[in-house]
From TrEMBL:
Keywords assigned by UniProt, alphabetized: GTP-binding, Hydrolase, Nucleotide-binding
GO molecular function: GTP binding; GTPase activity
Transmembrane segments: none
Keyword Nucleotide-binding attached: yes
Quaternary structure, from the entry: Binds to RNA polymerase II (RNAPII).
Protein name per its UniProtKB record: GPN-loop GTPase 3
InterPro entries noted in UniProt: Gpn, Gpn3, P-loop_NTPase
PANTHER family the record matches: GPN-LOOP GTPASE 3 (PTHR21231:SF7), XPA-BINDING PROTEIN 1-RELATED (PTHR21231)
């Protein structure tokens, strides 16, 4: 029997846990079952108590105390420990029926999504048809406030693309915290950021600010120290242009918009997730209880 799940990923503070909480609330309001798995060994506060918490297996605090690692090395240690104890996941998830949406709340350390092969192995284990057989969708969140800084936006998009290529499961990319940019950017202007392309660099507000400060951003021949600062000047612009061109040529990333304060927005993201994993196709028609039947 297939199971259904979504793995919520993205950089630190992107709004992953908030989205998981809004998603669970929305599922509950729509009489759907959620199973919330916290895989962040440092997470302390939850709006909905996790049904399964990695901290019951290993906590970052203990690792940092006992193995004397820092927070990032400690996180990698926790995940390596999880990979050696996968029964912790299979024991809890094995009995779930196809009615459930299993929600994995991931940590925000970016190295987990880019250059360490732990996540692909974990995803392979979760989706293996001979074992848990979870139809999994990855949801990669990026903060919508990043659009104000083009360099950040393209760097974030590159990390989303890297996660997409690495995981090989259906994937959606989401610009979170839309309520924070709604007033600054008109809908029409925001549309440009849904599909990243190089034209977004044409009117980079950072260029104007740098020109005002007397930094040369246009000199094609300028070297790496032309501006005196590493994150500005012509060479930095060339780097951004190269990254933007790479993203455009792959043409893999486009974004959905999410505002967790708006239930319709959460519902829209859920319907994309449902489509990706074909959740509805596996559901048995539900019989209504007598009082619900009368209500209908
Ligand atoms: N305005 C606004 N704030 C949000 C939204 N989503 C999350 N936040 C805030 O952003 C901060 C970080 O949110 P989290 O959900 O903890 O982010 P996270 O990605 O789980 O963070 P880590 O697990 O630490 O990587 C919190 O202060 C949230 O209240 C949103 O849709 N709108
Ligand atoms: Mg979190």
């Amino acid at each position: 029997m297939s199971k259904y799940g979504v793995m919520v990923m993205g950089p630190a503070g992107a709004g992953k846990s908030t989205f998981c909480a809004s998603l669970i609330t929305h599922l509950q309001l729509n009489r759907r079952s959620a199973f919330y798995v916290n895989l962040d060994p440092a997470a302390e506060h939850f709006e909905h108590a996790p049904d399964l918490d990695i901290k019951d297996l290993i906590s970052l605090e203990d690792v940092m105390d006992e193995v004397k690692l820092g927070p990032n090395g400690g996180l990698i240690y926790c995940f390596e420990f999880l990979m050696e104890n996968l029964d912790f996941l299979s024991d809890a998830l094995d009995s779930l029926t196809e009615e459930y949406l299993i929600i994995f709340d991931m940590p925000g350390q970016i190295e987990l999504y880019t250059h360490i092969p732990i996540l692909p192995t974990l995803v392979k284990f979760l989706t293996n048809p001979g074992a848990l057989d979870i139809r999994l969708c990855a949801a990669y969140l990026l903060e919508s406030t990043f659009v104000v800084d083009r360099a950040k936006y393209f760097a974030g998009t590159l990390s989303a693309m890297s996660a997409m290529i690495m995981l090989e499961v259906p994937h959606i990319n989401v610009l979170s915290k839309m309520d924070l940019v709604k007033d600054q950017l008109r809908k029409k202007d925001f549309k440009r950021f849904i599909t990243p392309d190089m034209t977004l660099l044409d009117d980079d507000p950072a260029d104007a600010a740098q020109k005002k400060a007397g930094i040369n951003v246009d000199d094609q021949g300028a070297g790496p120290t032309d501006s005196g600062a590493l994150m500005s000047g012509a060479s930095f612009k060339r780097l951004n242009t190269a990254v933007a061109s790479l993203i455009e040529s792959f043409s893999m990333v486009s974004y959905l918009k999410l505002d967790c304060t708006d239930e319709d927005s959460v519902a829209a993201i859920l319907s994309y997730i449902d489509d990706c994993i074909q959740y509805h196709e596996a559901q048995e028609p539900k019989e209504l209880a007598e009082d619900e039947f009368e209500e209908e």
